[in-house]
């Protein structure tokens, strides 16, 4: 996004970069807004997740990082490693700006067959060099991502004359025996192919115009997913044209033959997440076949206000890691569902059933039985729904409140953060009430709600639709009300708390 791209980087060029490396040591992971179950940097600014790749038991997460401050700039690749996608060890910064420009978003692959000649199983990062123009460059690591060497002949793809030419995501396409890159090219995604990660040729361009205002397309990801024994292809595109304002990630489901992607008919745009704070996310590369999941993580913010969120010392966090799958919609097209990865069990307490009963024309306070937890999950099942507008309210003693409102006749869920806590840091864009489709009938509605110190992620009906939103309450919400003022509902509520990942 943003037009300040070309201003960046130069500051770092003359620095002794090591001085900015993270050395461990004292951290302030107890800041009131510090996420307790989400990745956030020890200090400074982050945006997009980059270069996510799995190798020998380690999940690597690189990310857009400003080593010098808490606002966007000096873009470099920060790095963290996890064995379980939840507990992260922050590493030294891996790629700093150079004479070609700042290090913008990109991906990483494991070159099993040494196609590039950097060594068997080299980890190869493919990223955008953003200087006077945007070009694509590569760097490699032969020590499992601990150190990287930039390729001496960068860039590997020159700019054909476009202002927006970035965010390469690469995978090995077995059927045609080549690497395939998805690249954002203004309002389209362009695919390139290569035998060796160094020499790239143009394959095709994908565009989709639905008649509405057209955002800039960024951070694409093309990957296969099985549905009913059939291999489908999913294309993620992050765009500045979000359903609830600012930036969000849409998807297309279709086919890919090694040359071009074709979208199946569906009522596009469809959104991976309808909330305001899930952007630039992509899936992990090199997940073993024995696992087979498409594991996704997104940047939990929105360019509308990302530079102003009220955290101190650090700014930015990632969403919870999610496993993506295809689900049939009753109107005969495929939806992309997302659920939090099962690794979350390792930091979760047992479920505590806190309410089972019928709520009729009342605002029922439900004791959650928790005091100041690091983070928690609610599972709420509504059945025998006579009231078509039930509301879940989460609040604290300071009067900060979020409302999750169902409008079942119209098949919508609303997330209202207008009074969620601190909202005035960007009054024009942050407060609001955001809608998302429920994608199901009235008979049974299940919500899974993950509440951390500064975020709420809502998954509807096993992840058929979701909303991720930042919130900045004075304290985590620890009070719950279920409101049914227009009939009755049968409700079943469970709560479990999570240990901090730090
Ligand atoms: C998406 C994005 C990318 C770019 C990066 C720069 O949030 O705008 O297109 O590579 O951020 O930090």
Could you list some keywords that capture this structure?
502 residues, mainly beta, Tachylectin-2, Chain A, Jelly Rolls, ten-stranded antiparallel β-sheet, 1% helix, globular, disordered N terminus, binds beta-D-fructofuranose, Glyco_hydro_32_C, hydrolase, glycosidase, Glyco_hydro_beta-prop_sf, ConA-like_dom_sf
Describe the protein.
The protein is mostly beta strands. The chain has two domains: 333 residues, Tachylectin-2, Chain A (5 Propeller); 151 residues, Exo-inulinase, domain 1 (Jelly Rolls), CATH 2.60.120. Helix content is 1%, strand content 47%. It is built from one helix and 32 strands. Strand 3 and strand 4 form a beta hairpin. The chain is globular, with a radius of gyration of 22 Å. The chain binds beta-D-fructofuranose (FRU).
| The first-level CATH class name of the largest domain | Mainly Beta
| Percentage of residues in helical conformation | under 10%
Total number of strands:
32
Q: Can you tell me the CATH topology of the largest domain?
A: Tachylectin-2, Chain A
Average pLDDT number? 92
The dominant shape is globular
Terminus-to-terminus distance: 32 Å
The bound ligands are: beta-D-fructofuranose
Largest sheet: 10 strands, antiparallel
Radius of gyration: 22 Å
Topology overview:
Layout: H1 10-13, E1 44-55, E2 58-66, E3 76-82, E4 88-90, E5 102-111, E6 122-130, E7 134-141, E8 149-150, E9 166-173, E10 178-185, E11 188-194, E12 201-206, E13 217-227, E14 230-239, E15 248-256, E16 261-263, E17 270-271, E18 279-283, E19 294-299, E20 314-315, E21 322-328, E22 334-340, E23 352-366, E24 375-383, E25 391-395, E26 401-407, E27 412-416, E28 433-437, E29 444-452, E30 455-460, E31 465-470, E32 479-498
Parallel strand pairs: 1-20
Antiparallel strand pairs: 1-2, 2-3, 3-4, 5-6, 6-7, 7-8, 9-10, 10-11, 11-12, 13-14, 14-15, 15-16, 15-17, 18-19, 19-21, 21-22, 23-32, 24-29, 24-32, 25-26, 25-32, 26-27, 27-28, 29-30, 30-31
Beta-D-fructofuranose (FRU) is lined by residues 1, 47-48, 64, 75, 104-105, 128, 166-167, 218-219, 280.
């Amino acid at each position: 996004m943003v037009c300040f791209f070309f201003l960046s980087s130069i500051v770092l060029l003359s620095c002794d970069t090591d001085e900015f490396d993270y050395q461990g040591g004292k951290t302030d992971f107890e800041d009131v807004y510090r996420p307790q179950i989400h990745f956030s940097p020890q200090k400074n600014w982050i945006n997009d997740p980059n270069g996510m790749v799995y190798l020998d038991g380690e999940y690597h997460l690189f990310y857009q990082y400003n080593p010098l401050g808490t606002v966007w700039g000096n873009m470099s690749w920060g790095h963290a490693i996890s064995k379980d996608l939840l507990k992260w060890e922050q590493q030294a910064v891996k790629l700093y700006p150079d004479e070609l420009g700042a290090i913008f978003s990109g991906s990483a692959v494991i070159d099993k067959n040494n196609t590039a000649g950097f060594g068997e199983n080299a980890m190869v990062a493919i990223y955008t060099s953003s200087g006077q123009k945007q070009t694509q460059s590569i760097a490699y690591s032969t020590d499992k991502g601990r150190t990287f060497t930039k390729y001496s002949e960068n860039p590997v793809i020159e700019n054909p004359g476009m202002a927006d030419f970035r965010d390469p995501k690469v995978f090995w396409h077995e059927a045609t025996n080549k690497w395939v890159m998805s690249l954002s090219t203004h309002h389209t995604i362009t695919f390139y192919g290569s035998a060796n990660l160094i020499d790239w040729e143009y394959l095709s361009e994908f565009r989709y115009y639905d008649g509405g205002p057209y955002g800039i397309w960024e951070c694409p990801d093309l990957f296969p997913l099985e549905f009913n024994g059939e291999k489908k292809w999913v294309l993620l595109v992050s765009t500045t044209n979000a359903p609830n304002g600012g930036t969000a990630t849409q998807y297309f489901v279709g086919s890919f033959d090694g040359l071009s992607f074709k979208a199946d008919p569906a009522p596009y745009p469809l959104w991976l997440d309808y909330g305001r704070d899930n952007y630039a996310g992509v899936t992990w590369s090199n997940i073993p076949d024995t696992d087979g999941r498409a594991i996704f993580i997104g940047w939990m913010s929105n360019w509308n206000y990302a530079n102003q969120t009220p955290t101190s010392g650090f700014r930015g966090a990632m969403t919870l890691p999610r496993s993506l799958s295809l689900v049939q919609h009753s109107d005969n097209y495929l939806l992309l569902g997302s659920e939090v990865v099962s690794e979350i069990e390792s930091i979760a307490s047992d479920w505590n059933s806190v309410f089972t009963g019928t709520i009729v024309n009342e605002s029922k306070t439900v004791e959650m039985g928790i005091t100041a937890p690091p983070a928690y999950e609610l599972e709420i099942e509504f059945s025998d729904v006579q009231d078509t507008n039930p509301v879940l309210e989460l609040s604290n003693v300071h009067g900060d409140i979020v409302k999750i409102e169902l409008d079942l006749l119209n098949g919508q869920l609303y997330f209202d953060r207008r009074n969620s806590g601190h909202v005035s840091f960007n009054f024009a864009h942050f407060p609001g009430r955001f809608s998302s489709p429920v994608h199901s009938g009235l008979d049974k509605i299940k919500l899974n709600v993950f509440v951390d110190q500064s975020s709420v992620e809502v998954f509807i009906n096993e992840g058929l639709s979701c909303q991720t939103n930042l919130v900045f309450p004075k304290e985590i919400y620890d009070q719950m009300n279920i409101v049914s003022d227009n009939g009755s509902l049968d409700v079943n509520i469970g709560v479990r708390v999570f240990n901090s990942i730090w």
